[in-house]
Amino acid sequence: MTNTGIVRQLDKLGRITLPMELRRSLGFAERETLSIYTEHDKIILKKYSESEAADIFTGSTTDLIEFEGKMVSRKSIEKLSKLAGLI
Known about the structure:
Number of helices: 2
Structural class: alpha+beta
Strand content: 15-25%
Helix content: 10-25%
Mean pLDDT: 90
Shape: elongated
Order of helices and strands: HEEEEH
């Protein structure tokens, strides 16, 4: 991991702005879609890739359906349907 020396404060809504120099050096386009990961006490931002899409509940990467901008597996949908008493 490389320390950039950049320090930012979260705003009232919990947002930060990535400096232009950092966005340019990493090749992030304007309004780029990013994936957000956590690892222990770290937050990792990465360019989003369809091949990395995963179920928001289980992390599964197979048999996915997009619902309101989120990816959900058929298996999770079935479990939710049972929980709701629909099956």
